[in-house]
Design brief:
By secondary structure, the chain is an alpha/beta fold. The chain is built from 22 helices and 19 strands. The chain is globular.
Length: about 575
């Protein structure tokens, strides 16, 4: 280790990676994946504040967790992403959410400048800096430039968004070549990364490979991981935009013709061409893979392989809880559930649960010292205070306002048990609907004396606050409209940290039976709301009863520990990408 830079030696850590491959019965991968031919993971968003990149939500958190899991498993892995020169922080000014744009410098986070690459846009050469940070067997390779804008700058079909995606794809692929890397596999994390596979196809075709062989080769080495249930929600662009931003970066006439043929009425949907360039396709939960409605350019329904998202357990679970899982043999050395994990979970007692939650509460209180709520109050919760939380993106389909539809009933539930309700979630820039819903929600709270003291909105939601609430709360409210959540990972952190899960049966939650947690259901939203209030009451009562506390949390862990394990997720990807 020298001045923050790690230089990989081919003899380092080989025993560990072979042991992991042996454990997942993929011994042949020691030849398929190597430091020179890494598993490459492409994402327009990374949420990894420790490394200076603050994303917008679950997509970025998943990307960071995937790299961390690969690092622990010693898998040669390269994550390619933009480094945005600004990040957005949110504050509350009265009832209004304010966005503050703060510049960040990659040098402050241990990234090293490598060189520059160029992409062509609108008859200009756009110069991109290639930067890199290494972590033994894994690395983050990023492209950046001062005018790159923020994450998700502009509308999904805007020029600037297309520029960012072209810069990541063509610029990121050039960065790989600069570093002497050849992808063993290209995992495209959503359609914004399509241009990376297009750049590879162009390179193969222009260097003499028969065009159809180049297409087959690219398809067989590309995985498209979809995170959106409905194809209509995916971005599309005009042929005129592609003429300015995309075609100038292609050198192969055959590839240009192949791409030009994919337009319909002068428009192109990125999901359609991503499906065409990736033979391997995955959805992020069992339900998602089953119901996602996508079709290829010929109109045929597309099938997705289910690989449910997972979390890096060491990052998101309280260290004392991880020690419990390991000491009782519930998790193995790779953080995957042991063969008899379900039986061993029954060792979890109410006394241990309460002790572990006290340790988590201390962590939460320490974080809250610097994170006042929307009224400027510095919060400190006692060990006997029960906390419900809603901590996830503040978007319409997740229904953050649902518990506040009947403020009198909500107040009565909280008041009977002296409970608190904490809300933490980022409102996307430009989402006027959700900003107005947040304003109305806070208005409801402000007009009730009891709610005003027991409901807290904490602005500027980030990884640190997400961790604090995961380890320090008692129950998670997760009520997306059924059929709209692809997976979600916030609820996974709650299950790992021994919180009650109060949820609709959607996304990754639907990987297990609805009897595995405090399920919210109904024939309409009114019935769902009534059930939500009942489940909140049940959680409060169960927290005071040793048998119920043990039973509910043991059932959750038995059902979901294999689901939430990031190591299980990586194993599933290896099984799919490199069949034995």
């Amino acid at each position: 280790m020298d001045d923050g830079q790690y230089f990989y030696h081919p003899l380092e850590n080989i025993e560990d990676v072979e042991l992991f491959y042996e454990a997942v019965e993929r011994n042949h991968l020691t030849k398929a994946i190597s430091p020179e031919r890494p598993y490459t993971y492409w994402t327009i968003e990374l949420y990894d504040q420790k490394n200076g990149i603050r994303g917008g939500g679950g997509l970025g958190v998943l990307a960071a967790d995937t790299r961390r899991v690969a690092e622990k498993m010693n898998i040669p892995f390269a994550l390619i992403t933009p480094f945005y020169p600004y990040e957005t922080h949110q504050t509350i000014d009265g009832d209004a959410v304010r966005d503050n744009h703060v510049p960040v410098d990659y040098k402050d986070f241990g990234f090293k400048f490598i060189d520059t690459v160029n992409v062509k846009c609108c008859d200009n050469l756009c110069r991109l800096d290639v930067i890199e940070k290494r972590f033994k067997n894994t690395r983050i390779i990023a492209i950046t430039e001062p005018n790159f804008g923020e994450l998700y700058s502009g509308m999904s079909g805007s020029d600037h968004r297309l520029y960012q995606e072209v810069a990541l794809g063509f610029g990121g692929y050039a960065a790989l070549k600069l570093l002497g890397l050849k992808p063993a596999i290209m995992q495209l994390n959503e359609v914004a990364t399509f241009f990376a596979a297009l750049a590879r196809l162009d390179e193969l075709a222009r260097n003499g490979m028969d065009f159809y062989e180049a297409v087959v080769y690219t398809r067989k080495h590309t995985l498209y991981t979809n995170h959106t249930l409905v194809q209509a929600a995916e971005a599309e662009f005009s042929q005129e935009q592609f003429e300015r931003f995309v075609f100038p970066n292609l050198k192969s006439l055959a590839v240009k013709k192949w791409l030009a043929d994919k337009f319909t009425d002068g428009r192109i949907k990125l999901s359609s061409v991503t499906i065409e360039i990736a033979e391997l396709r995955s959805g992020v939960s069992k339900l998602h893979a089953r119901v996602a409605n996508y079709r290829d350019i010929a109109g045929n329904k597309v099938k997705f392989k289910a690989v449910t998202n997972g979390i890096d357990m060491d990052t998101w679970a309280l260290p004392e809880i991880m020690e419990f899982y390991r000491s009782f043999g519930i998790l193995d050395e790779y953080n995957m559930p042991s063969g008899d994990y379900a039986e061993k979970i029954e060792n979890l007692s109410s006394g241990e649960i309460r002790d572990l939650k006290k340790a988590g509460r201390k962590v939460l209180n320490d974080i809250l010292k610097e994170r006042p709520d929307h009224n400027g109050r510095v919060l400190e919760f006692g060990n006997d205070d029960f906390i419900f939380d809603f901590k996830r993106r503040f978007v319409d389909y997740k229904r953050p306002e649902l518990p506040f539809r009947d403020p009198v009933r909500l107040r009565n539930i909280l008041e009977r048990h002296n409970a608190h309700y904490v809300i933490a979630g980022r409102v996307h820039a430009g989402d006027k609907t959700m900003r107005e819903k947040l304003r109305k929600l806070l208005d409801v709270v402000s007009t009730d004396d009891y709610l005003r003291g027991h409901v807290h909105y904490i602005p500027d939601y980030d990884e640190k606050l997400a961790y604090g609430l995961s380890v320090g709360s008692n129950a998670a409210i997760n009520v997306p409209i059924v059929g709209l959540e692809a997976c979600g990972t916030s609820w996974m952190k709650d299950v790992a940290n021994l919180n009650f899960l109060i949820s609709t049966h959607d996304g990754g939650v639907a990987d297990a039976s609805a009897n595995s947690y405090l399920n919210v259901s109904g024939v309409d939203e009114e019935e769902e709301l009534d059930m939500l209030y009942q489940r909140m009451e049940e959680a409060l009562i169960a927290s005071e009863n040793d048998f119920d506390l043990e039973y509910i949390l043991q059932q959750q862990l038995k059902a979901y520990l294999p689901v939430i394990s990031g190591s299980r997720m990586l194993k599933d990807y290896l099984d799919y990408l490199f069949p034995a």
